[in-house]
RNA-binding Zn ribbon-like protein (Streptosporangium lutulentum), 200 residues
Amino acid sequence: MRTHATGRVLHDPKGGSFRFDAGALCLDFAHTGGEGQYAIFETLHKPADLGEWLAQPPLAAVMTVPVTARELTAAKALRQAIWDAAHARAAHRALPAAAVAVINRIAAAAPLVPELAADATTAGWAPPVRAAQVLSTLAREMIDLLSGPLSERIRECASDNCPLVFVDTSRPGARRWCAMERCGNRHKLRALRARQATVP
């Protein structure tokens, strides 16, 4: 399975974009939009949008069966469940039962099946490739993440007003920011200004 390389470019509705690597594909997926106040970040407006997101590397799951409206609804339910579970784990709270139920239900479907190419040096996904299979694969990855050794490294960005969540896969385990060029640099700039303000 080619799900080890992660990260996507996120776009701010007010303008600007930055590369955010959540450290796990399922967490990257959790940042494709949302409910309530996060609805302005929605990128999965129609079934084809979901198919396009899933077809991008590293997953590269090109649908051989068109994504349905029902699968899009399931995708958004899984996305919200991953988001809720990740934030609960980052805050050291019990995982919401509803989120766990959604993740388990979607993981119960058949996942993607890897297939070695004829040249025996590359791999793809055995057809048919359906969105429901990809969602199952993402849900299973989230189960592995929550129950594995990196579970305690699921964190929310240390910025006061950034809700992005990630798993810190760095060796020292010292990652604090969604992205250094975004919240990390803002923090450095604020700290610098605060120091300068105290200089007589």
Summary: The first strand starts at residue 8 and ends at 11. The mean pLDDT is 89. The two ends are 58 Å apart (CA to CA).
